[in-house]
Amino acid sequence: MTGASRGIGRAIVEQALERGDTVVATVRNAAALPPRERLEVHTLDVIDTAALRAVVDTVFAAHRVDVVVSNAGSGVFGTAEDLSDAQVATMIDVNLVASIQLARAVVPHLREQGGGALMQLSSMGGQMTFPAFGLYHAAKWGIEGFFGSLAEEVKAFGITTTLVEPGMVRTGFFDAAPRVEPSPPYRGGPADRAPVAVEDMPVDEELVAAEIIRAADMADPPRRMLLGSDAYELVTAALAERLAEAEAQKDTAARADRPLRRD
């Protein structure tokens, strides 16, 4: 489990320990998750790929790992134009590159031991978008594409993959995300809006954690798992809109087809 110090990650750790599982968790600050019985904690910044690989190798050398949960993530609110280069790089490194590198590191071990489950925290934001959250969406849409391909590559090895797509979860994630004030051209527009208060977010982190654990126990878990009625409603609406746009282009799409050869 990466990103285990708070939020959904912490809830998964607590629930897994409560039911008697052994948990290996990574955190950036060791003080955030003191070790206890059946809990092994490693300090890790997931964007350090060499360190990530070293932790993965150490853990698999000591344990059979049935479930890997890739949960580490971060957010930033701001228009694409207003974000700094450093913020762009951090969002992609933490939310996309680190998740890809974790998957690449664990797959050989899972294959060697005969299988396992790889659970990747995505978001309803991997299927739809809000203004002023573009870099988070870019990373989540990217990880959705990566796992769509990875799932086909590894299923013959007994490795299952699940993209967990929660809605707006009542955690400290949004409070921790920096907010970049919109520059004058964007003021009063779609990107200039008050953030949703944490207490108004409709999805419960404890219930999300319980559903992730339930799916991890399945022999054939879903490849994508929407959690929260808001996620279901917004994602299905976004997909219906995209499908309608695609269907409207059936005839124009065919204009690019090469003429059939006639022998």
TrEMBL record:
SUPFAM superfamilies (alphabetical): NAD(P)-binding Rossmann-fold domains (SSF51735)
InterPro entries: NAD(P)-bd_dom_sf, SDR_fam, SDR_oxidoreductase
Gene3D superfamilies in UniProt: NAD(P)-binding Rossmann-like Domain
Alphabetic keyword roster: Oxidoreductase
One Pfam family per UniProt: adh_short
Family to which the UniProt record says this protein belongs: Belongs to the short-chain dehydrogenases/reductases (SDR) family.
UniProt name for this protein: SDR family oxidoreductase
Upper lineage: Bacteria, Bacillati, Actinomycetota, Actinomycetes, Pseudonocardiales
